[in-house]
Predict the 3D structure of the following.
Amino acid sequence: MKRLLIGAFAALLTVGATATLAGQSEDLQALRDYMQNRFPNLAFMDYANGSYALDAAKATQWESQRDFPPFLDHLDEGEKIWNTPFTNGKGFSDCFGSDPSKVRVKYPRWNAEAKKVETLEGQIVACQKANGEKPLKTKKGKIAYLSAWLASQANGQKINVIVPQNDPGAVAAYEAGRKFFYTKRGQLNMSCADCHVYNSGMQARGNLLSPVIGQVTHFPVWRGKWARATGGKDGFGTLQRRYDGCNKQVRAKPFKNQGDEYSNLEYFHQSMSNGLTIDAPDYRE
Ligand code: HEC
């Protein structure tokens, strides 16, 4: 039965044309225009609320969840992790600078020397390794608490992912991420864009599909689904953990967490929320 429903849903999809565009700012403009046309009554800032911005009844449920944020203790733990010195006496501030409110907005970014996209979680781990510490796992647990606390310190600042157009490596990484987003995969043969662009605002198996714009403002996220799997104890997960979930939905194999595919995807994906305000962490179903 489940399969049938999915099949019917997949068959309804519009086959979207993915014209090759000139670059990040053109992509951003094209997506904003597309969404504005699709959701004429949605204000730009409301995209940060994902599917809740599109459904008043869901929004009411969500608001009541938010009245009692389940993640405050985890945020405190994140702060503690930030302030705990490494065995060598140094700490995270030696890698990221002493002002924790300035960290979240720097990532993801292109490192021209290393020729790769750096994500916040990837750099947390790199910092630990450089200091002889045991690196944290990158999907959930402590890394999500630390990343969520850092994001919370940046609340009110705007997402502004920069792709230096004069650096061919940066442009290639962005293009690879963009291609990932628009490439069909998995047994269902669907792309991220099939669900989060061309079918945004539609129902898929009881879920209202959020538009790609605004999907990253509140990460790491506390998901009811993830919390239930731990008996309510820990619902936190990083953005790349969420990518796994969506890849599983189309029965595609997840990619390596913090590997080039996901980090390039993150580079493109986060930049499509440029201009939106960070409001993290937050609750999602
Ligand atoms: C079969 C449809 C489908 C595909 C394909 C899909 N997703 Fe999703 N995605 C969902 C559903 C359903 C949700 C939960 C409801 C929502 O927020 O859209 C979701 C949620 C998300 C969220 C969380 C949004 C939030 O506000 O917290 C992110 C981020 C995301 N998807 C990214 C992706 C990326 C990147 C891809 C491609 C790798 C992808 N999705 C592919 C169905 C899909």
Observations:
- The mean pLDDT is 92.
- Residues 50-51, 190, 192, 194-196, 204, 207, 209-210, 215, 221, 242-243, 246-247, 249-250, 269, 284 surround heme C (CB under 6 Å).
